Every structure is written in structure tokens, then in C-alpha cells.
Amino acid sequence: MRVEELMREIDVNVKKLVEVFAFLFKYRILFRGTGVEFAGLKEYVAGEDDATKIDWKASLRTQRLYVKQYEEERDLDIFILVDASASMLFGSQEKLKYEYAAILAGSLAFAALENRDNVGFAMFNEKIIGFIEPSQEIANYYHMLENLSRVSNYKGRCKLGDALTFVLNNLAEKTVLFVISDFIGLDEKWRDGVKMVSAKFDRVIGIMVRDLRDTYLPKEVGYLRFQDPFSGKILTVNVDKIRKKFEEEAKKQEKEVEEEFLRSGAGFVKIYTHEPFIEPLIRYLELWEEY
Q1: Engineering a disulfide at 121: which of 99, 132, 195, 233 sits with its beta carbon 3.0 to 4.6 angstroms away?
Q2: Beta bridge partners of 268
Q3: Judging by DSSP bridges, how do beta strands 267-272 and 203-210 pair with one another?
Q4: Alpha helices for the chain (secondary structure H)
Q5: What is the pLDDT of residue 291?
Q6: Whole-number Å distance between alpha carbons of 148 and 17
């Protein structure tokens, strides 16, 4: 996928997401806490000021009515962590998983930048790729798109635990962390990583990007050849005999990942590549109003 094509796809998808981000960020729904900080006191003016904000202790001391003033906090960062392991190159639909994830990540970044928030980014497999510290620099956004669209970046195993340890040590506490991955072939440390980042950051949201064939095999096709994306080994199997067991194991693994995120206090949403991501993602984000 070329950068120009990625930008066109983002432009098609992002308008509604920008609107939702603007609402969520305005009222600080994305973040724990009030989203405002105390700025000082001013003398109460009847008809202009909210009487519920009167500071009675200060008013009693001075024998005049004073109200508390607040300023909205704007020092929260958005960080997007994208899986670049070899399994992301798979796809049976119009878009490969890495292409779909790239459009999703780019759309999230664009929506946050439009809302004048800092955006950071990194990809990961067995190492960290293209780390960008959160900022509002548009040049960093284009650098992000270049990395997302570069096919040669996608290889190796999914060392999610190492990647989460990296962001844990390099990002501020007031961060909203999006983790975009198929969550296939995870390392042994990923559970501890999810727990640690969920405990530190304001919000952590896992977005599982799956192809239909990650979960459901085709029917009545007989023998097919499968290649392990990590080892390269090829295996010929009778699909009709393993389909049911394959589906059971795939769903079990998906559920394990989801439950670990939720148990850790993080959010989680699963999206298939044959479906547009905007509507399910927006529905999920809007649920944050309730928390």
C-alpha cells in the first residue's frame, strides 16, 4: 500500500471519527479524573457565575462570596501502537490485515490531531519500529503513514510484552494508549504487559483486527496448504476434518485476549477486515460516556 493510497482511505473514513473524538475530548470522557484543574478564585457576580461553585471556606474568611475557577487540562497524549509481525501480512478479503490496521491507525491519529491533541506512534514485532513521541507535528504524522505503508516493516514475531514494556518506560501517565494487533502468536510476557500499562496510563484500548480466515475456515474444500507466518513451515491438511476444532481454538484464544484486557481494566474491541471499522469503533468509543 502506497502512502497516497493510505491517505485517501483515511480521508474517506475519518470525518465521523473526528466528530466523535471532539465530543469525547471536550468532555474528557476518554480520561480518568475530571479533566479540569483548579485555577484560582474570583469574586462572585450574581447572574454571571454558577452559585454551586462558591467556595464557602474562602468566602467566610473574607466575608465576600468567591467562586472557584477551573481550566481544562490539555496535557494528555494519544499513543498508537501497531503490530508489525508477519501474521499481519495475511488476508483473504479486499485488504490485508496490515492495510486495514494502517487505515485504522491513521484515522485515529488524524482525528486526534484535528482535536489539537498530541499523537505518538510506534510499530512492533521483535523490535520497536518508527517510535515517535507524542506531539502535534504534522511531519510526524506523515512519518507515521510512511512506516505503516512500508511492507518491509512487517516481519518476525509478535513481541507484545516487550512492546508494552517499552511504552511503559517511555510515555507519560496521562496517555491514552491504543494497541492495534491481530494478537496472534503472542509472547509469554504479554499478559504482564497489559496489566502494567493499564495500571499506569489513563486509558488502554486493545483493538483486535482479524481476517475471517483467522477464525473460520472455508467449507468443503478438502486439502489445503497452510504456511506458518513466523516459521515459514508449510503443512497440508484436510480442512473439512479440522474446521470445527480450528474455530473452537481460534475463538478460545480471542476470548482469552479480550478477557485479559478487561480484567486489567483496559478496553477491548474486535473488528474483522471485511467490515468497515468506523461504525463499530464509534459505537465502542461512545460507550465510554457511561464510565
Answers
A1: 132
A2: 206
A3: parallel
A4: 3-26, 56-62, 97-114, 138-149, 160-170, 190-200, 239-263, 278-286
A5: 46
A6: 20
Alpha-carbon dihedral 160, 146, 208, 275, rounded to 10 degrees: -170
Q: 63-68 long-range contacts, Cβ below 8 Å, gap at least 24?
A: 66/41, 66/42, 67/41, 67/42, 67/43, 68/38, 68/40, 68/41
Contact between 70 and 36 under an 8 Å Cβ cutoff? The reply is yes
Classify residue 160 as exposed, middle or buried by CB count within 10 Å of its CB (0-12, 13-18, 19+): buried
Task: Compute the Cα dihedral for 159, 127, 107, 99 and give only its sign.
Answer: negative
Q: Where are the domains positioned within the chain?
A: 3-28+74-216+264-290, 36-72
The span from the CA of 14 to the CA of 190, in Å, is 30
| Distances, alpha carbon 218 to alpha carbons 81, 92, 147, 224, in Å | 31, 11, 33, 10
Q: What is the DSSP letter of 54?
A: B
- Cβ neighbours, 10 Å, residue 90: 18
Rounded mean pLDDT for each run of 10 residues along the chain, 291 residues in total:
82 73 55 49 76 75 71 72 97 95 94 89 97 95 96 96 97 94 96 96 95 92 86 88 93 97 95 90 71 46
Task: Check if the beta carbon of residue 250 is closer than 8 Å to that of residue 271.
Answer: no
pLDDT the model gives residue 290: 52
Kindly give the pairing relationship between strand 36-43 and strand 66-72. Answer: antiparallel
Cell 461512545 identifies what position? 286
Nearest residue to 84 via CA among 134, 136, 142, 131: 131
Determine which helix (DSSP H) or strand (DSSP E) holds 68, and give its type and residue range. strand 66-72
The dotted CATH code for 3-28+74-216+264-290 is 3.40.50.410
Q: What is the pLDDT of residue 32?
A: 47
